Amino acid sequence: MKAAVVTANEEVRYMEVEEPSAGPGMVKIRVAASGICGSDIPRVLHHGVHFYPIVLGHEFSGDVAEVGEGVTKVKVGDRVTGAPLLPCMKCDDCQNGNYSLCRHYSFIGSRQQGSNADYVVIPEQNVIPYDPSISYEQGAMFEPSTVALHGLLQNDYRGGGTVAVLGGGTVGMFTMQWARIFGAAKAVVFDISSRRLELARRLGAEAVIDTTKENFMEEAMALTGGKGFDYVFETAGQVSTMQTAFALAANKARVCFIGTPHENLTFTPAQWENMNRKEFHLTGSWMSYSSPFPGKEWELTAHYYATGQLKFDPDFIYKKMPMSQAQEAFQMFKTPGLVQGKLLLINEGFGL
């Protein structure tokens, strides 16, 4: 089969590799679309892979091409995606259903061969079937939805309150939608991009806040009658938004950091004191899994995608490129700010 193989730093070659088969308990998937995740970029551009050569790709969609002995969950022809985490299932964290925290895990498209290829093989328990009315493009974007929902679950989210979502990227848009699906009184998206804020309104946000404005905090607090937000979700991983999260929180609020910072994060004593004085709860969120594996995050994404309540917008996708142009696709990330949205690698034969 053909695959986009990372053979050296900044070198992705579209080449012939051995085609895998489905052993017992395994499912072989013919890949339609495979998204480039933010975590893939340093793997290719900054010597970030675990070994060479490696086929990356863990956000994908396709059709079941072959099932191994004992597989009953899916059949040949089913439209599916895959949960990429391969937890050990033996450690204390796994035994308690905290699969994201497993220290002995493997991972599709990182620690073993992934979906930037004609075919990928994964265990039956990792296969997520979904309604064929859902496009392959949408099917390749299950993971950001599940990451968002995991954040809500980590934050003990309940409907009826006001919700602030800091960061209007893909995860932020799904976070806002999940908050509304489960009963937010008001969901507000904060971002610096007018295009993202427009998308947030289109997807159902009751209000949006342009954080480039000098008075954005006053505008935001006015939406809550000056009380602050009951739930705050930081999805951008930026120092400024993490600090803003503390300021936006209401008394006894619940604050969740979904975004991952890439710079040193510091708070002034006055900023940090927000947590003491307001007595808000602060938690982090990592990946997107719960018990029974892979979890309700994946099951509910399939359900609400199918009902149309969890919306997918073409603006989520920056560009679709042939799998054969994977090298060119990764080079695009060397230009800061060029890629706005998901870049999908597409295999031939699916009409995408």
UniProtKB/TrEMBL annotation:
Cofactor(s) needed: Zn(2+)
Superkingdom field: Bacteria
GO molecular function term, any single one: zinc ion binding
Pfam families per record: ADH_N (PF08240), ADH_zinc_N (PF00107)
Protein family per UniProt: Belongs to the zinc-containing alcohol dehydrogenase family.
InterPro entries according to UniProt: ADH-like_C, ADH-like_N, ADH_Zn_CS, ER, GroES-like_sf, NAD(P)-bd_dom_sf, Zn_alcohol_dh
Protein name: Galactitol-1-phosphate 5-dehydrogenase
SUPFAM superfamilies, alphabetized: GroES-like (SSF50129), NAD(P)-binding Rossmann-fold domains (SSF51735)
Domain (Enoyl reductase (ER)): residue spans on this chain: 7-345
Record keywords: Metal-binding, Oxidoreductase, Zinc
Gene3D superfamilies according to UniProt: Medium-chain alcohol dehydrogenases, catalytic domain, NAD(P)-binding Rossmann-like Domain
